[in-house]
Amino acid sequence: MTGALGMVLFSIVTFALWGSVQTAQTARLQAESMTADALFSDVRATVALQQMHLRRYQIEPIPDSPALDRHRQTAAATEAALTRLTGTAAGRVDALRLTAAHAQYRRHAERLIALVAARDDNAVHFDQQAVQTSHRALQQDADQVSHRQHLAAATVAGAQQDIQERILAATVAGSTLGLGLVVAIWLVIFCYECRLLDAARHCQDLALQDSLTGLPNRACFESRLARIDPQPADQPAEVAVLMIDLNGFKQVNDTFGHATGDALLAEAGLRMQQVLRDEDVVARLGGDEFAVLIERPADDTHVLAVARRVAAELARPFDLAPGPIAVSGSVGVAFGLADEAAQLLRQADTAMYHAKHSGCAISTYEPGMEARRTIRSRSLWRPRSGARRRTANGRLEGSTP
Fold it and tell me: What is the pTM of this model?
């Protein structure tokens, strides 16, 4: 009896130690993978922001341009993230390649900045031939690496959950063979493994959820878009994607602090959820940028009505701790098929930036928007607060003298 009890106790202790070692190893791998995933997502976002700020500088090439400063700041952020990635085993090879591609893009961008500042007519040609080409290659590479790294992080999280499930099953099976004297020990181990399993599931949920607003994050949004079931006869489903950016959010952060900015983002997400159908998805992609997925819309009119409701909700003052705060939203709309997920996101993003630059609340994507230096897109709705009128001297109210 004593010998059997000793063997049971020895087996339980050995099993518990093995499970702890396996858990620690997979947790370490998951932490490294999630860190690399987050850094590659930052690289992806800052690479896009660099080109956006460079475009703004080309449109308004003024001395000490804020757009030029932000372009260089986001370039520095990209380089910092790539430097951190070169020190990780999971991202070193991709980081070194992206570093070289980013350096080439930076050289072309600085050359273009010099040409624009000098009012050189070769600026447009150089932009089309060198800057856009190098940025497109860099952005595509960063998108692919970020997507691949996210899948790797999800795989590691799934492996950790599988290990915890196997440990839990083995614990239950082994405990049935023990004696009554080891019931208490078995309960301790069982509860311990359940907590580890819950922690693994919680980590997996966090990987697909925005911690601030509780909305799906970019990874979850893209995954949902890619998993839309096809129509009969294997025809891809029609979808609409809305990209929303909050105008004036940075000023709120700078004036009232990040706590107020976080409260504003959470309230904005809640307002957008309230004007959508249950089957529609709203996600926070990062910063003050949101996206809405409308599956199989009845027609374009329905989508545009949703966009108007979203813009109207964001235009209403937010009742926060410092008092009523007024911001607005720029909405970009793109229509397409579910199997064109990446293209739809880019098109909606392009339309959203057109709406922001042109002062419209809503803009739909039109072919050729990316290639036009001065975008003239169809304005679908302009809020009354955004209207400007011409004064007696011929200027628009709110314009720079």
Answer: 0.45
